[in-house]
Design a protein that fits this description.
- The longest helix has 17 residues.
- The strands form 4 sheets. A 6-stranded mixed beta sheet has the order 6-10-5-9-7-8. Strands 3-11-4 form a 3-stranded antiparallel beta sheet.
- Helix content is about 30%, strand content about 20%.
- The chain is built from 11 helices and 13 strands.
- Helix 3 packs antiparallel against helix 5 and helix 9 runs antiparallel to helix 10.
């Protein structure tokens, strides 16, 4: 019997090409759980055959239809707050929103001065206040301020004069516009970035909205790294399932040698730092090294660091729901005696 050898340089990345779901998923409590943490509800039903708009209507305008709606848009937060039946639950989640820089050698953003100029040109506070209704915090680098292993880097304040000076020093081809690609949900934010860039740097900025049918091909181009992406900046959201060591899931994915979202040649210094981090056995040393990686990404303006959005939920007023920074959990969820399920003898 032969032994199959696996290439040491092979890295697998999952790309979602479809979103087929069953209409209902039913979870029932395990009453024999072997830890003190047990579900407080007997049954939870996930409803997957309604649109986000229909789900919000159901929780805000009716009682006894839906109890929790996830991924509420900041634009809908006030509607939830004003609802007779629902309340808004928010948490500073381990999520980031940033612009991926295309740093391949033939692109102007390969120059650190140009990347810093763009970071100085953008008004993060305005994006948070106007585009996200305040439900976010500006980012200095890639680690959210409430996560472990951060650098403490303060978000860059908008400084149009300093941004223009850096761009003039680095040089920018006359008449060349910067192209900003974005999925449809972030089109408004991309437009705000484009306006800031035009105002501060005096160059054209074109926003390209990536259609649903272009998401998978575009993702493959980015992941496979066989072709140079056609954009200069890609607005992108990502998340971390742990607050302990953000570089393992955040920084590596965007800048590492095997990072799916790296849009440029490998960064030897980043790889050296990350390679040292993954060999550390001391939690304290690893936290320090993680912070140094975050600071390196800040100093090199490795991305257009924007903000860390909150997670927003619309929750029935008779439901006690605990939000988590990382995942969607229902173990602690409870309902009051006035909840529709108990009023109706459930």
């Amino acid at each position: 019997m032969g032994i199959q050898r696996v290439r040491p340089d092979f890295v697998a990345t999952n790309v979602i090409t479809g979103d087929d779901r069953t209409d209902r998923v039913v979870l029932e409590a395990n009453t024999d759980h072997n830890t003190p943490r047990v579900a407080q509800l007997q049954k939870v039903v996930f409803v997957n055959d309604v649109t986000p708009e229909q789900a919000l209507d159901a929780v805000c305008d009716q009682d006894g239809v839906l109890d929790i709606v996830t991924e509420v848009s900041p634009a809908d937060a006030q509607r939830v707050e004003s609802s007779q039946y629902a309340k808004l639950v928010t948490i500073e989640a381990n999520r980031v929103l940033l612009g991926i820089f295309n740093t391949y050698p033939d692109r102007p953003l390969a120059d650190r001065r140009v990347r810093e100029a763009f970071n100085l040109a953008v008004d993060r506070d305005r994006i948070v206040d106007e585009a996200l209704a305040g439900y976010a915090r500006p980012l200095g680098a890639l680690t959210p301020p409430w996560s472990g292993g951060g650098s403490g880097a303060e978000p860059r304040a908008r400084d149009a004069a300093a941004a223009k000076a850096l761009l003039d020093e680095a040089g920018w081809s006359e008449g060349r516009a910067v192209t900003i690609a974005t999925p449809a949900p972030f089109e408004g934010i991309a437009a705000m970035i484009a306006a800031d860039v035009q105002d501060a740097l005096g160059i054209g900025a074109e926003v390209i909205v990536v259609g649903d049918d272009e998401i998978v091909p575009g993702s493959l181009t980015l992941i496979e790294k066989k072709l140079t992406p056609p954009w200069d900046i890609l607005i992108h959201a990502w998340f971390d399932l742990s607050s302990d060591l953000p570089p393992a899931v955040m920084h590596r994915e965007f800048f590492g040698d095997d990072g799916a979202f790296r849009a440029g040649p490998p960064d030897a210094e980043f790889n050296r730092r990350f390679g040292a981090l993954v060999k550390m056995t001391s939690a304290e040393e690893a936290q320090t090294a993680a912070g140094e990686i975050d600071r390196y990404c800040y100093d090199e303006s490795k991305a257009l660091f924007l903000c860390a959005p909150n997670a927003l939920y619309a929750v029935n007023r008779e439901v006690e729901f605990t939000a988590y920074k990382t995942t969607f959990e229902l173990a602690e969820a409870q309902v009051s005696a006035q909840h529709w399920s108990r009023r109706n003898g459930g």
